[in-house]
Each structure stands twice: as structure tokens, then as C-alpha cells.
Amino acid sequence: MARTDFGPPDYKTMLPPVIKRNYGKWLYHEVPQPGVLRHVSETGEELYSVRVASARLVSSEFIRDISDIAEKYCDGFLRFTTRNNVEFLVSDKAKLEPLLKELDEKDYLVGGVGLSISNIVHTQGWIHCKSAVTDASGLTKNIMDTMVDYFTGKKSVPSRCRIAVACCVNMCGACHCSDIAVVGIHRTIPRINHELASKICEIPNTIASCPTGAIRPNPKLKSVEINHEKCMMCGNCTVVCPAIKIMDPENDGVSIWVGGKVSNARSKPMFSRLAIPFIPNNPPFWPEVTDAVKHLVEVWASNARPGERMGEWIGRIGWERFFAIADLPFTDKHLDDFTHANTTFRSTTQFKY
Amino acid sequence: MARTDFGPPDYKTMLPPVIKRNYGKWLYHEVPQPGVLRHVSETGEELYSVRVASARLVSSEFIRDISDIAEKYCDGFLRFTTRNNVEFLVSDKAKLEPLLKELDEKDYLVGGVGLSISNIVHTQGWIHCKSAVTDASGLTKNIMDTMVDYFTGKKSVPSRCRIAVACCVNMCGACHCSDIAVVGIHRTIPRINHELASKICEIPNTIASCPTGAIRPNPKLKSVEINHEKCMMCGNCTVVCPAIKIMDPENDGVSIWVGGKVSNARSKPMFSRLAIPFIPNNPPFWPEVTDAVKHLVEVWASNARPGERMGEWIGRIGWERFFAIADLPFTDKHLDDFTHANTTFRSTTQFKY
Amino acid sequence: MDVEKKVAATPLLDELEKGDWPSFVTEIKKAAKTSKMAQGLLEQVEASYVEKTGHWKHGGIVGVKGYGGGVVGRYTDDPDRFPDAREFHTMRVNQVPGFFYTSEKLRALADIWDKYGSGLYNMHGSTGDIILLGTTTENLQPCFDALGEIDFDLGGSGGALRTLSCCCGEARCEKSCIDAMDMMYDLTMYYQNEMHRPAWPYKFKIKISGCPNDCAAASARSDMALIGTWRDAIQVNQEEVRKYVADGMNMVQVCRKCPTEALGWDEKNQTLSIKTEDCVRCMHCINVMPKALRIGKERGITVQIGGKAPVVKGAMIGWILVPFMKAEAPYTEIKDLVSRITEFWAEHGKNRERLGELVERLSLATFLEGVGLKPLPQMVSAPRANPYIFWKEEEVVKNG
Amino acid sequence: MDVEKKVAATPLLDELEKGDWPSFVTEIKKAAKTSKMAQGLLEQVEASYVEKTGHWKHGGIVGVKGYGGGVVGRYTDDPDRFPDAREFHTMRVNQVPGFFYTSEKLRALADIWDKYGSGLYNMHGSTGDIILLGTTTENLQPCFDALGEIDFDLGGSGGALRTLSCCCGEARCEKSCIDAMDMMYDLTMYYQNEMHRPAWPYKFKIKISGCPNDCAAASARSDMALIGTWRDAIQVNQEEVRKYVADGMNMVQVCRKCPTEALGWDEKNQTLSIKTEDCVRCMHCINVMPKALRIGKERGITVQIGGKAPVVKGAMIGWILVPFMKAEAPYTEIKDLVSRITEFWAEHGKNRERLGELVERLSLATFLEGVGLKPLPQMVSAPRANPYIFWKEEEVVKNG
Ligand code: SRM
Ligand code: SRM
Ligand code: SRM
Ligand code: SRM
Ligand code: SF4
Ligand code: SF4
Ligand code: SF4
Ligand code: SF4
Ligand code: SF4
Ligand code: SF4
Ligand code: SF4
Ligand code: SF4
User: I want to staple A231 with a disulfide (CB 3.0 to 4.6 A). Which of A214, C67, C97, C210 is the partner?
Assistant: First the structure.
């Protein structure tokens, strides 16, 4: 019988000695240069962390290459960040410069620290998910190709800007609380294979799965049907009944959401809100999407005050001003119509023209 | 055939000449003394308005008495305010002092202007409404007896404080947006006269009237029944079916709500929120209610900054601090459980201990 | 009405004749000197105070000829005990816009009411009407006829346009951006039919305030609130600003309260600056320096819809439907908008569903389409956060 | 795995090998040098790029012995066209807390995955797992057995406790109020059964951040977020504060960003003051002056519950359940709370209903009663505004 329930490796066996000695004793940190963190301990010891970009979807070759580097400069110790960057943990200051040099030679991108645009948190997309409306890896690659100077520190931003990409409205990740989120959406209601449905659809479950009550039985066909007016294209029914399909390459695409944040720093966490309702899927470059993200970052970077996250900036100037400054059309799609819609209506005469 | 559809008297025939001459030309106003407004026009003309308290529920004798006064000092011109005070419109400055003297002699209360607690906006209560859970006039009288110094300007407040009283959750008035609102509430579910219901209840209508779906048919009795767990004691069903009664003298009483405002001045309009879930009806003095209102006003007045309405003050310090400073218990009743409940949950780690 | 019966003892109510605040009990007693109905009221209310419960019930519908509303029928639930409160209907009399009266008018009203009713009033009801408190079915018509002779008509009740109300506006306020009283008067006259003959799913209220201070509490309690506003710059008299400063006003603190940092104080040049594009017309600076600051010159209204009390879907504060609209007599644009809204509501609203609830149920987008308005960011405090966007068939490519 | 077939042309994907950012296409190609499955993936994804649609479908449930989860089954929807992607399951491997690794461990992992799978990984999945991308049903068990030998266990999937994750905490951050990594490790070990054998209505996620900066994005994406905090005063080193000022920090502006005006700068005495009772621990001042300010000494966690993505009731950001709680090994209090919550949820939750949705449906008050916690104002941003208060039978006088 195979071993079970033994859990992950003990983290204590994965820490460099300098961390073990200074665990819980770190006093402060500095950012001596883009992509590099210097943490100083109460004991006076210091640790340099060098952050490099990763595609997240990596090969064994990549794993072995970063292992090589870690062995050469970090006694084999490295980590990943919560945004999927790699961090080389340098305890010997003398090895910092050589490490940076090798990284540069090998075309690793050093950055993502402090006032930068760090790695995009993204999802499976066409690489692996059956629900994917778009390809998260492709979008990420294109957006970060465009944004790379903000990662490496060549261009600066008023504060952190967290970009996220999700291939469907399930939003695996934290799209719903990101400065900029690119989310795959459907625009047509699911199509039912009645033939198949009559055999496999557990009709009551399928009906129950619809949050808006758009599904009703079709006793004639021993199937179900969907009320177009009520369907909000969430795809929930397709999870429950395999005879229902929602993929529609011609009409599927992505939406862009802005102004979310997770941290409790200064302001409270905020949801991302709809900026651009629809952009068609246009692989391999999705130029309209990259342009839109670039534009949003630039508008924010050139208008916000130092330290202001996207949502904090918009909160200060107001959404009406945001749509004007960003020169985005405001449409019926932007008006909330879900459960708490009326808490988003403007119940004051205070507004800007 | 009687005249119909002729509308109210033309307001132009009700205005003193000084107003007609300066209509739309007023330049600014001052408050030379509590209860008195001095409006100055572009033309240099001025108007003194003297505001006096009213019970709102008044007799012909009162109407004639204020008419007498208006004739003596105001050429017969007077008005009421949106909060049911009377205003004497003095165009001849020489008549101001004599008017004030007569008002004082006749025990009229002059005040309610500027940083004061003006008249309570209240409702019918036991005087006239079939839905009344408490008596609005009695509560108003008691509260204003206690608060009178804040009306006349003997005591001061940081900013306007609007008190409202409503005898049931219909909240005729603007309780839901008042600095302090006293609202009659039920605490027991309606009782059904099944005998009567079987004859007169339009069962489908009654079932449909319940916002929480708490009512189901009782085919046996040809009546309906109410699910206690789901009933939120709103009384809506009693409006639809006369066989359903909700009055319960032993358990009915009042609740107190704070922090609402209507004006767009500085901050946006705000809803009043629950401070005290229940105080029993205790006529004729409702001492627990007057004490509570007095306490709330005093706590606010001694803690808020100049110009801060109740809700603005609480917004600044936080509700957790408000409950602590006001020394009010925080209970399960304060937790919202209606439609938008989860928008009131604290989605941040930011709080005060 | 004349009086015979001696009023029973009212020990609890008597307590409420003490204290400084004007007493409603004293008022009822004054009326009771000459009105049996007022006596009956006193007795019944005393009983309510003892028993802690009301004693009114609804009865059949009562009213005056040609009207479907304006009267609220009331009957005591115990006619044997309170015979004089047997019938106790109220008449909702449309108040004068701005609540301005002459003593002459008031006296005439009192004479009529002493004749046909209890001699008791609410000056005024929460909606704005003069509430004539307590008369019999029999007296309704003659009372109404008599009121007509002194030009007092009834207001609204039931599923109708309710009596409008407004602040004193340009008659007595320097902040008024519109002629609120005239607007109320004009709309009232125009909508007489909608007010007197209920034909809608539920009540519909319009209230008018001359400026965003909203002294008519319009946004909280009207389905349609018309609020005066402006769209150019606030008029600044720097001379007067300096006087305020000289008199001790802390201008830094004043500026700090501007919600959008539009207000700035240049200490060196003793000059107040206002960034018009950032000003949200919150009235704060104008309120604290009435002599120095005035509303702008390009004036109109902001239209808010949906305000209401909690029944049934929860209270709502009106939200912006039209950020800015001209508001000059004969108010054609406003009337046109009112018509489009009430038509949409009359068509789609359910019984006892207020406008705000209807829009919530059908969605704001659907409503805007229905009344022919374009979505604007000013209508919301923020766009949607959920990804459940509805797309119409005509917006996408047809397939399969 | 060794390779025979030549990969078909992938002109669209090839474009994505250009550009500065590391390319996932290049990574797949690297793997494809030795893995047929990676080749199959490349072909299928190229097709998706051409056709603008995915080609995966769900199949039967696959897994390893003794476990109910940890593997996500995947099959191509067109096995004739993409035979090498016929089976393409992912294994969710529980990452090391804090994502710390030795090169040795990573190499061992790569060796196993090259043998049994595609040689492709997500480092890491959004929940936190190492995602081993693509293997066959047949290889699952041997791969799992081999992983066990190097101490890598599977994480969660399905209606189970999901793989926990945490920030680097005390290992590499001066702001950490708790030993986040140890807490994650301890809880993970404690809940092995709940993670590996789905028995709940839906997924349940726990994430841990050392402080309110929430670098694990816990409050947005975990049903239960454990966030380090403190309840005494921020530790201030005035000497270092002055150095920041000397280096050009504008202390007035720093203070202005404190959300509660707790922060004050005394220009004369060059002293920073913090009103501890007003501080909401927003981290702002600590973030901008890490050398001068430190978190307090009395440390613990704030527990937030209900965070989740939009499906089905809309996204939620976790709200406060426990404002402050000690968090020291063996975390008995925390485990006790987790048990009470998951028991309540397992009992009352519907299929595919997240904790936050359950609480929304039943009410926060009901939930608190169920898990034995007292209501606190810290749990809400404001009390209720609607008057629809539920009263229990036992709270009132019995009658009728
Ligand atoms: C390494 C990492 C934690 C880990 O265990 O992996 C980390 C590490 C630090 N974070 Fe973070 N944060 C990390 C993800 C996050 C996240 C989560 C995310 O992005 O998905 C957040 C919440 C994001 C959000 O709000 O949407 C986050 C919000 C913060 C903040 C608050 C930022 C703000 O202004 O809102 C700070 C404070 C600051 O920046 O001054 C902070 C500060 C820090 C500090 C300075 C803490 C310290 O003293 O060591 C660390 C260096 C950060 C840097 O990049 O400059 N960290 N940090 C994560 C690096 C991700 C990356 O590769 O870019
Ligand atoms: C007379 C009246 C209008 C009328 O047509 O009857 C009126 C008249 C004025 N209001 Fe008002 N307000 C009147 C009801 C209101 C209401 C409605 C209510 O109370 O139900 C409000 C909204 C209340 C709320 O927000 O809950 C109201 C919110 C204001 C404000 C904003 C107050 C605030 O700080 O939020 C101002 C501005 C100010 O006070 O500086 C204002 C200012 C004024 C000024 C100073 C305007 C002017 O320049 O003439 C008037 C003298 C007021 C005074 O009492 O000092 N008026 N005012 C109403 C007097 C009621 C009374 O008897 O007390
Ligand atoms: C008389 C008055 C209270 C007062 O003492 O001033 C009043 C009295 C009644 N209101 Fe009201 N409402 C009165 C102004 C209001 C207001 C304020 C306003 O109009 O500005 C509101 C809040 C604003 C609003 O409309 O939402 C108001 C919200 C209600 C509601 C809740 C409506 C809602 O959608 O939430 C009801 C319940 C209903 O319609 O069934 C209601 C129902 C009632 C009924 C008809 C209840 C009933 O069936 O017995 C009351 C008749 C009492 C009576 O004996 O005459 N009354 N009612 C006010 C009308 C006087 C007038 O015409 O001037
Ligand atoms: C692999 C991963 C995305 C990634 O590329 O990183 C992922 C992939 C899937 N997620 Fe997720 N979710 C992943 C993290 C998340 C997160 C983020 C997190 O856990 O921190 C979320 C948001 C937080 C949350 O749980 O709410 C997330 C919210 C969802 C949802 C929406 C849940 C909701 O209540 O709103 C679904 C829909 C569902 O459960 O049916 C979902 C469903 C799915 C399914 C199982 C959909 C399906 O049936 O095919 C995806 C399987 C794809 C695959 O091929 O493996 N996934 N999913 C992440 C798990 C990797 C890991 O174990 O580390
Ligand atoms: S976001 Fe949707 S499509 Fe993308 S991995 Fe998650 S469930 Fe799959
Ligand atoms: S896609 Fe969503 S809204 Fe549409 S029918 Fe399916 S479950 Fe219902
Ligand atoms: S608040 Fe209720 S009880 Fe009072 S008058 Fe209005 S409907 Fe009647
Ligand atoms: S009181 Fe309200 S909640 Fe209770 S049964 Fe009647 S309508 Fe339903
Ligand atoms: S609402 Fe404005 S215009 Fe009307 S009285 Fe109040 S301050 Fe004056
Ligand atoms: S009106 Fe309000 S928003 Fe406009 S400048 Fe004055 S204080 Fe600022
Ligand atoms: S959450 Fe706090 S403790 Fe954890 S890494 Fe971020 S700043 Fe440090
Ligand atoms: S942590 Fe935040 S709330 Fe506390 S003093 Fe610093 S800035 Fe203010």
C-alpha cells in the first residue's frame, strides 16, 4: 500500500541557513535595485532576494536551469512567489552581482519588486481547461511583452498594479480584486443537444443549477429549454449537464475590469469593475487587449498620485471622470443588474460632468 | 356639479409683497438670533422669518391664533416649513422685537434654525392610523420636551440633527434617512383568524404579498399559515388580508435608528441604521425612549467635530467605536439579514478594538 | 359642529399637556370644546394609551364625486365604546406650494372645517397635504364643495400621483437654482387627472428641492425627485471671502471638507480657488459662506428616481436618472420625462410595486431603454463588479 | 517518456516565442523535445488558436488509491486529431509552505515527472499547488507512488479542503505577525483526511497571510482567511523616522493617508505620534517606513470568512468573523473554529454552495449561533438599515 496523507515536504528542510537563523527576526527591507530585495535582521545578518519572471507554465528544463543557478549562487535555495515569480535567495552578498550578470546573460528578466507591474496571475486557458473561453497563457505573454518595462523598473508606476487573466467567469485567481483583470466571457446562450439531453440530462438538477431561473423543462423533447431574456451566460448549467454547450468561437471573447485590490493597505479591499465589456478573441496577439491594458496603465500612471492604486485613484476622481479620461464608452453593459445592483446606483446629486 | 381638478391656491396670491419684489433675487441670509432668519436681497431689501414650534396636530383655535399674530406683525403672511414649524414673515424690521415679545408671552417656542434640533417629522400613530404600533404624537411630545433647549438654541449641537418618529415600518416620512429615527416595530408573527380567512382571504394574493415566502396555504382550514422562521414581521400580509392581525400590545414597541441624512451637503445621503432594536411601549412618557434619544444626542454632541452630522461622525469613527462610546449592546438584531446583507459585512481587516 | 357630551377623563393624555413643547393633547382638547368628534378621538386615544394599541380600522372606500382618492377612510374598531369616532375620515387637501398662506385663507379653511369636521388638522402631512383629521362620510362631499369655493382642492392617495411638495425655493432662499414653487404649481395643475383618479400600480411621488441641500427631503421620499443644480462655476466674491477669514473662519478646515478637493485657499494671496471640473456641487462651501459664494448661473435640475420607504424591498434613496436638464416654464421636457416614466411603470409595474422596485426587478438598462435614455456613468456610483452581462441576440453574430 | 513523432507546424504559437517575456510556448517546446504528450498539447493548442476554442472535455473520475481528489481528469474532445492529448490529467501536488524549495527537491520532482508525465508544470497553480500538467490514467498511481518517495503528497480538489497557501511570513518578512508557514504546515498535516477525501458540499479554501498586506490574496479567494494582526501599539523608532524625514519624506502627506487620522506629525519636536485606539492596522505607515515602524508585540490573527470568486451568487471578499485570536502552535483554537465552521457548513450547505453563500442565505446571525460566536460590531461595516428584524419565539412574551 502506497504512503498516503503525509502532506507536503517540511518547509524547515527547504530554508537556507540564514533564514533559519533569522526566522521571525527580520527587521526591515530595502530595494537596492529593481528586482532585488535586501532584508536585514535584528542580528545584523542580511538576505538578498532576486526576483525573476516566469511563464508559470514551465518545463523540466526550466526547473533544472533555475536549480543550476540556485546551486551556483544560493547554495541551492530558491522559492516562488505568490505571483509565480522565482526568487533566488542569496545569503552571500558577494554572489549577488555575478548572479545578476548570469541572469541577464540568460535573458531572465529581473524585476517585479515594489512599484512595478509584477507577473500576471493567470489560469489554464486552452492549455488545459474545458471551460476556457480564451487562452490565459497567450494573453499573459502578450500583455507582459508589452508591459515588460514596468516589470524591470525601466518605467515606473505610482504604486503596485496587479494584473490578472482568467479564461472564464469562474475567475480562478483573484481577478475580481485586481487592478486590471482580463476575463473570458460568453455572449450567447448555451445550446442544448436535445437528443443527448433526453438521455443524460438530470433535468431537475439542471433547472436548479441556473441562478436566474432561465431554464424550464421541455417535456415534449424530454429535455430543457433556455429563456434568452433571463440567461446571463454564466455557464453554470453546462457544468451540470453535458448536453448543454456554451462555447461559441465567433461570439466569445474577453472583458476588462479595473480598480480591484486585495490588500488592506490604506484603503479596504475592492472589487474590480467593468471597464470594457467585450473584445473579440484575436489570437495569437490579441492586439486590442494588449492595447487596452497598456492604455489603462498609462492613463492611470500619468494621472494618479504617488502611492495610489488604480482603484484608489478612480475612487478619488470618480468613475464618471475615469470613463472620460480613459476615453472609454459607457454602455448599458456597465450598469449592474445582478443581486446588489441597486447598491451601485448613484444616490446623491454629487457627480462630475 | 362641484368644481374639480382646479388644484391648490395659486402661491403667487399667498406671498408678501417683499417676497414678490425679491423673488429669485435673495443674495444671502444670516441668523441674527436663534429662530430668526434674515434674508437680504440683491435689491437691498430684507425679510425676517421667525420660526416657531408647532405640534403639527393643531386645532382651528391654533390656526386662528397664528393668523391673528400674522396679521398683527406680518400683514397676514405666514408659512409652514417642511418640518412643520410655523414661520412668521416679517417685512418691517420694527415689528420683529414686538413679535418676538408676543410669541414669548404666549409661550410659543422660537427656534429650530441653523445648528439646532428642529421639529420632529412624525406620523399619525394612534391618532389616526390603523397600522400604528405606537403613538407618534406622544413620542414626539416627550422627546421634544426633553430636547427643547436644543430647539431654542440654549444648548448647541455640532450640526443639524433631524429626528423622526414613525409608528410602523412603513415609515411615512424620512425615518430611513434621519439622524435619529424612532420606529414602531412588531416582534411577533401575525395571527390568523382562520374562520374569517376561510371566508374572505384571497389566498393567492396573500401568499404573494409576503416578501419572504413565509405564507403557505392551509387547505384543510381553507386558510393560510405562517412559517415563524421565515416571517420578518413586516405586516405586509395584514394589508392584503383583513383576517390576519399583527398588533400585539405586549410585544410591540419601538426601535431606534441613527446616522441617516438626506442632504447632499458635504457627504452623500445616508440611511439610518439600527442602534437600539427594541424598547417597549410605555405611554404616556416612554421614558426609556426619551432617555435613549437624549443620550444619543449628548454622546454625539460631545464627541463630534463642528459641522459633523450624526452619520458623518459615526462614519469617521466607525460603528464599532460608536457602539462602544454610546455604550449600546451590539446584538444579532444589528446584523443585517435582508436582501443586501452581505454588502454590510466588513470585508477588510481594518477595524478598531 | 356643536357639542353636548362631557369628555371622559383622560388622565394619561393629560400628562402630555405639561412640558414645554406644544401639546397635541391641548390642541385636541381645544377642538373638543366644540367638536364631538374631537371628544371621541380623545377618548379613543386615551384608551390606546392605556391598552397600548391602536383602535382604527379600514373600512369601505369613501370619497367625493368624480375623484378616486384624496380621502383616507377610517373607522373605530369599537363603535360601541367610541361612538363619536365611528367615522373619522381624513381629507388630504393640496397645500399651497412652499406652504405659504395668508391668514385670510387659513381662517376660511378653519371656518369650513369647524363646520364639517373635527376642527383638527395636520399642518402638514408628511407628503405635504393639509390633513383635515376626522369627518364623516356624509360630510365629505359638502366639505369638498365648500373647500372648492375657497380654491382648496384635494391631493392624491392610492395608486395615483401624490400631492407634490417643494421647498420655499426662490421665494425665500438664495440657494435656489430653480423656481421650485412654480414648478410644483405647474406640474400639479398639469397632472390633476393623474392625481385625482388613481390608475397606477401604486403611489407615485414627486418632490422638488431648489438645491442639493434638499430641504424637501425629496431624494429620500419621492419616486421622482427634481433637485435644482447648476453646471458652470460657483460665483465667488473674494472680498466677502476675506471678510469671513477676518472674522475668524478657518479656511483650511473649510477646504478640507470639500469632498473632492476642488476647493483651495491661497494663504498668500488670500484667494479662494474652485476647480469647477472637480466640484460636485455638494453645497458645503456655499452653505458656510453664503455672503461670499453663490450657485452658478447655468441652472437646471438633476432628476433622481426610485426614492422610497422600506416597504417591501427595502428603503431606497433616489438615484440619478438625468444629471442635468433645463427647468424653465412650461417645463415641457420634465413633463415629457414624467410621462415616459409613468407610462413605462404603469405598463410593467406589478401591484404595489414602486418605481424603484420595478427598476431593480427589470434592471436599470431595461428601464433606460424603455424610457429612451442613454446610460451614463453619472447614474451609478460604480459600474458592475459581477461578470453576468446580458447580451441581446441582435448584438452578436447569429449562429447554430 | 521518449519521443518519436515530429511535431506539426505551429505558426501561430511560434509567434509567441518572440517578445521579452518568458514564453510558455518555448517551455512546451522544450518539453516536447522528449514528451509526446507535450507535442500533443502543442498541436491541440495551435488548433485552439486557429479555431478560437478549447478542445478539452471532462471525462470519468480518475485518481489514485485511497484518495478522492488531487487529480483533475482531462481528455481531448477530438482524440483522432490529437491522439497524444487523449488523456491529459493534471496532478495537484501540495507545494511546500511559502513556496521554498531546494534545487535537490526540484530536480527529484522533475525526474519523476519526466518519467510519468508531460514534463510540464504550473509553478504554481492559483490555489497554490504544483500543477503537474498532463499524464495518463495509467501513470497516475505509479507517479503518485514515486512522488511519495520524495515526500510530495497530493493537494485537494472537489468538495474538499483545498490545498492551503500562505505568504513567506516570518521566513522572509519583517511584517509577519504570525508564523504563517508553520501554521499552514500544521493545519495541512492536521487536515489530511479532509483534503484527500471530499465529503463537503463544495470546495473549502484556507489561506494565510502574515499581515493585512495580504500577500497571499487570502481574503479574496479563501472561504477562510487567516490574517496576521496585532492589538497593541505600533513600535516606533523616532530616530529612524527623523532619518526618513531628513531623506526627504513628506511626513504631512504620509499622515494624510492614514485612513483614521491616527497618525500625527509634530513638526516642532520632529516626532511621530500614533493614536493606538484609532489605528486600524492598515499597514500604510509601516509600509512606507519599514525601518522606523514595526508591527505591535501582542500578535495573533483576524479570521475572515466567505471570500470567493463570482460563481454563482457573485464574488465575495471575506468578512470578519473573529477580529482577534491568538495563533500559536498547535493552533488548537483555530482548529476548533475550523471544525465548527465546516461542520455547520457540511450540515446546512447545499450542493455547490460556498460558505459565504450559505451564510448569506441563512443569515450571519444564524451562522454565528451555529458556530457559537457572539455578534460583534467589528463583523460589519454598518448595522442593518432595514426594519425587518427577526425575533424568536423565546424572546417575546407568549400570547394568543
Ligand atoms: C513575495 C511576496 C509574498 C510571497 O510569499 O510570495 C510579497 C512580498 C512582499 N510584499 Fe506583498 N508580496 C507578494 C504578493 C502580494 C500580493 C498578492 C498578489 O499580488 O497576488 C499582494 C496583494 C495585492 C493586492 O492588493 O491586490 C501584496 C500586497 C503588498 C502590499 C500592499 C500593496 C498596496 O499598496 O496595496 C505591500 C506593502 C507595500 O508595497 O508597501 C506588500 C509588501 C511586501 C513586502 C515589501 C513585505 C516585506 O517587507 O518583505 C515584500 C516585498 C515585496 C515586493 O515585491 O516589493 N505587499 N503582495 C509576493 C510577491 C508577488 C510577486 O511576485 O510579485
Ligand atoms: C425652511 C426650510 C425649507 C422650507 O421650504 O420649509 C429650510 C430652509 C433652509 N435650509 Fe434646509 N430647510 C428646511 C428643511 C431642510 C431639510 C428637510 C428636513 O429636515 O426634513 C433638510 C435635509 C435634512 C437632512 O439632510 O436630513 C435641510 C437641509 C439643509 C442643509 C444641509 C444640512 C446639512 O448639513 O446636512 C442646509 C445647509 C446648511 O445648513 O448650511 C440647509 C439650509 C437652509 C437655509 C439656510 C437655506 C437658505 O439659505 O435660506 C434655510 C434656512 C434654514 C435654517 O433652518 O437654518 N438646509 N433643510 C426647512 C426648515 C425645516 C424646519 O422647520 O426645520
Ligand atoms: C398621513 C401620512 C402620515 C402623516 O401623519 O403625515 C401617511 C399615512 C399613511 N401612510 Fe404613508 N403617510 C404619509 C406620508 C408618507 C411618506 C412621506 C412622503 O410622502 O413624503 C412616506 C415615505 C415615502 C414613500 O412614499 O416611500 C410614506 C410611506 C408609506 C408606506 C410605505 C411605502 C413604501 O413603498 O415603502 C405605506 C404602506 C402602503 O402604501 O401600504 C404607507 C401607508 C400609509 C397609510 C395609508 C397606511 C394605511 O393603510 O393605513 C397611512 C394612512 C394613515 C391615515 O390614517 O391617514 N405610507 N407615507 C402621510 C401622508 C400625509 C399627506 O398626504 O401629506
Ligand atoms: C488549475 C486552476 C487554475 C490555474 O491555472 O491555476 C483552476 C482550475 C479550475 N478551476 Fe478554479 N482553479 C484554480 C484556482 C482557483 C481559484 C484561486 C484560488 O484557489 O486561490 C479560484 C478563486 C477562488 C475561489 O475558490 O472562489 C477558483 C475558482 C473556481 C470556480 C468558481 C468558484 C466560485 O465559487 O466562484 C470554479 C467553478 C466550479 O467550481 O465549478 C472553478 C473550477 C475550476 C475547474 C475545476 C473547472 C473545470 O471543471 O474544468 C478548473 C480545472 C482546470 C484544469 O484543467 O485543471 N474554479 N479556482 C487553479 C487550481 C490550481 C491549484 O490547485 O493550485
Ligand atoms: S478561469 Fe474558468 S476556464 Fe480558466 S481555469 Fe478557471 S475554470 Fe477553467
Ligand atoms: S448559462 Fe447560466 S443563466 Fe444561462 S441558462 Fe445556463 S445557468 Fe442559466
Ligand atoms: S408610519 Fe405606519 S402607522 Fe404611522 S402613519 Fe404611516 S402607515 Fe400609519
Ligand atoms: S408579516 Fe410579512 S414576513 Fe410575516 S408573513 Fe406577513 S408578509 Fe410575510
Ligand atoms: S433646498 Fe436649497 S433652495 Fe430649497 S430651501 Fe433648501 S437651501 Fe434653499
Ligand atoms: S460645492 Fe462642494 S464640491 Fe463644490 S467646491 Fe464647494 S465644497 Fe467643493
Ligand atoms: S502578507 Fe505581510 S507578512 Fe506576508 S509577505 Fe506580505 S507583508 Fe510580509
Ligand atoms: S497602520 Fe494605518 S491606521 Fe494605523 S497608524 Fe499607521 S496608517 Fe494609521
Answer: A214
